[in-house]
Amino acid sequence: MTTYREIFANREFRALFAGNAATVAGKTIQMLALSALVYASTGSPLLSALAFLGGLLPQALGAMTLLSYADRVRPRGFLAGWDVARALAAALLATGVLPIWGMLLLIMAFGAVDALSGGVRNAIMVDVLPGGFVLGRATLNISVGAMQIIGFATGGTLIATLGPHRALAIAAALIAISAAVTYTGLRTRSPRATGRAGVAATWRGNRALFMNRSTRTVLIASWVPNGLIVGAEAMYVPYAGDWAAALFVAAAAGMLAGDLAVGRFVPVPVLDRFITPLQALLAVPYLLFFLHPGLAVGAAAVFVASFGYAGTLGLQQRLVDWAPESLRGQALGLDGSGRMTFQAVGATAVGGVAEATGPAIAMTVAALASLAVTASLRSRLRAGAQVRDDEPVDSGNRILTAGGDSG
């Protein structure tokens, strides 16, 4: 599958696309409304920030404890059921019966399971779109960016006109729609793996992925260079002040353009060759900030750099190709949750540098560090593209060896 017409002709992909779009819009409205509600109740910027981003913080915990379930659940039932649970949680928040601490605990508890749901959703796309995973993943990426923009704009309007509680009720309805679309649009599939899931199984699977040089290199390449550049993006407000929105818009536009171009026009067999160049592109334009460019030049640099995020598509395709089928969902879930965690780490690290040097120098340092990591991984990625790693991967159910079946 190499065209948008082909993937949208697939009924199951249409269900995944529509369900994911409704979920993203609902979650975005929920985050915004809950943040406004908490701030109005407490006047605390810290608690407001926790309400907005608190669901992202526990994803690392979910990746360490729950990801073994990603290959041991029936995808259709789990994804639809999880959306039902999310819709009920949003409806509970809309009632206003929970205290502030209860609201924060609720969204953090759901955040821990989001790492699992991301792994299940990405893994089922491999089955829904045989040979079309990259284009399908890029298409979902584009829809996520678009629905976040729509969600923020709509959420702000709803909060201003109806208040945060009614906005949360609308978020619950959108997520419930996602549950219905997912359940009716996907067909039933059996789990990829058998055996008991849990913390021990998750640790064994994660260890198996990290003990293999190829998958370990792919995960590090996916997490660290991107996380450092997200740290640079965290400096937009200190650097540009009231004009920071222009840099954020340029970054979003560049990322969407990269997903659109690479996902559609770069054939999967040659996608490997673009991983390192795209990751280098992600960092190089930020070196201009050492010269303190004006807003127009800075926005252009950010747009070009953000095109490089499309390198993640090639890395995700490698995980699909190399991870054992019984660990595919766990590998993709670990990739997603790891990227979220390293984005937070990158923002913290770059912010610390900026305290001593100022935002422009901190952005330059982040770019140099990202380039250094990309360069250090270049030979390993190239070697992995030529031959699979000769170290066995013990998934607890099967062994992946050189020349063996990758599922």
Summarize this entry quickly.
The protein has 407 residues and is mainly alpha-helical. It is 77% helix and 1% strand. The model is unreliable at 387-407 (pLDDT under 50).
- Would you identify the CATH architecture of the largest domain? Up-down Bundle
| Uncertain residue segments | 387-407
Calculate the mean pLDDT score and round it: 86
- Domain count, please report it: 2
Describe how the helices and strands are arranged.
Layout: H1 4-8, H2 11-42, H3 45-53, H4 59-65, H5 75-95, H6 100-128, H7 133-162, H8 164-185, H9 199-211, H10 213-233, H11 236-240, H12 244-265, H13 268-271, H14 275-283, H15 295-307, H16 311-322, H17 328-357, H18 359-386, E1 393-394, E2 399-400
Antiparallel strand pairs: 1-2
InterPro entries: MFS_trans_sf (IPR036259)
Protein name: Membrane protein
Transmembrane segments: 21-40, 46-67, 88-113, 119-135, 142-162, 168-186, 217-237, 243-262, 297-315
